[in-house]
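Obj.: predict assembly geometry.
Materials: sequence records (below).
Method: joint structure prediction, all chains together.
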Amino acid sequence: MSAGTAKLNVTVAEVKPVNDLVTRFKFVRTGGGDLPTFSGGAHTVVEMQDGGITRLNAYSLMSNPADRGAYTISVRRDDEGRGGSKFMHSQVKEGMEMVISNPVNLFSLDLRAKKHLMLAGGIGITPFMAQMHQLSMMGGQFELHYSVRNASLGSYAEELDAKYPGKVTIYHDDQGEAIDLGTLLATQPLGTHVYVCGPKGMIDWVHGTAESMGWPREAVHSEEFLAPASGKPFEVKCAVSNKVVQVGEHQSLLEALEAAGIDAPYLCRGGACGQCETNVIGYDGKFLHFDHWLTDEQKAGGKHIMPCVSRFEGKTLVLDR
Amino acid sequence: MTIQFNDETFYGDFTFKNSDWAIKRFPFPFHEDSYMYSVNMEPHKSYRPGSVFERTFDVDEHYVSEMKDRARVLADDPLRCQSLPHMTLAGWDLVELIMEAKAAEYPDLFELHKDGNRWRWINKPLGIDDTFTFLDESTLPYGPMEYITRQTQGDFAVLDQRDDNLWMDAGMVTTQADWSLDFDIGMNFFEWHAPVPKAHEMGIFVRALKFLLNIQQGQPARRLNWTMTVNPLLDTSPENYHKWGTMKQGLTKDNIGEKQHLRVELQTFFRLPRSNALVFPIRCYLISFNDLVTVPKWGRRLHRVIRDLPEELATYKGFIDNRPLMVEWLSQYDDGSPTSDGIWPDE
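Observations (raw structure tokens):
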């Protein structure tokens, strides 16, 4: 199979600042026609031609999954990041043509659930917006608890509260409001599934609390895309393609492979899905594993690396690519 | 209509037959002179006009009779079609996938007209003209999966994806090679594959599952699988083993060419967009040994494959007792000359 997913040619139909940090983008199919249906929780990978660099960032689809006319995403500007979100904020204009991937869902609803309890932190709200569209269409039970820094940075908070009365609770950090997770989890009906999307600390907190309260592992779902970390440049030898590739300070190993024309598979580009797992043939140095995919045992074993987020420091690294 | 549909049976008097057209396009599954398991998956893209790989859902001369056979099997045993409550949305996904594909690829046989969620579906070979509301079950005579799979050749396993596994939570299974939906319903990928020999130690299932979990919208995949069936039976289910199992004992040197059939499954895999489920259509093609050896390359190759197949596989596929007879009969058609690569007949 070739790398990544089938591509869609789209045109930017709207660029709308939501607040100081978040901007919303609307895509329609270039030349007209329907976009594929998707399921709540799906993301798309947006390709950005930024000077000589191709950036590929995954963003959750937040629009109504049944609306095949347009997709919308929201992008939070990360001034410390490697530039993808800055590119979206500063370079992407209405009318621009872009390429995005077919929808991929790594955070789907468990449709057996009697009730869906959603916990969002910050920009982690976006996949839930599509899921709430889907559930309200199907008559599913849900409840959203949404934690924001303050009212002005609480993207879509008021709109969601108005749209789903009685189902949405907003928590403002600056007013000392916080989700009372223990009580919340203790008072759910049997058959409830919990979903969390937000910062890493929040995800760990939800998993840890649920586990300590005896929730089944299968009933707690999370999604966290990591942005690839920057680090020292390194060199990698690719045995199959017989190429030596330099990985730059602000480049991921996956991006460096792609730039060298090596066919490397991927889906999430964020250390979660496992698709880019690559065998290590030999190394002399130290791995910096940042992914959620490999087990601790595998990370210690030195035989596998996830090139989308993980790095290497040392003399030589030989990969089976 | 472009296809002449046969009027034939897959039970009783077994009037099933393949035309020359059907023989020529038969999906012969062996690309070399031997066989072992592999995760032999490839993208399900249109390939080789006229072949069974050209269309998303192949329709052939057996269509109308196969659908009658399905209705007959369901009337006897309604549990061949089951859908757990959370799989209804996946059923609608399947309705959309099949109707859109068939209407686009066989416009002379099928039509789909949409007015918002109000859909009109015309199936000319089966004489159906229904109007219904998409996503409203009360507007169809059956549940959505049952409705569309009563009109589509092949079995359908609809798999829910959760907890990094696939779950057999819905299906329409009337043309199966000795497995039971009623037994497997609710099982996960490893549970329902537990009876398969050898493949576990080869790590086949771990790799296959990983591949399937990552199948994406717009990128379906396919593979071929095969077994042997005495008489052109579509329904070789465990439920009815007492009816067809004994037929395997009636094989002789004189009737094997007519009665013994190679059974090939074209298995495809599609991600379903609304439910994020996976649908696994399993389309069965049958060819008698007599018809198969009309293609000299296939006769030579089938002889070598069956002769050299590991014993566990011949046992699992249910023809270990008849193997000596098959090999003896097929050897008449193997002159020992080399065969060309790939599955297609030599031009």
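Conclusions so far: The longest helix of chain B spans residues 88-105.
To do: check interface contacts against the pulldown list.
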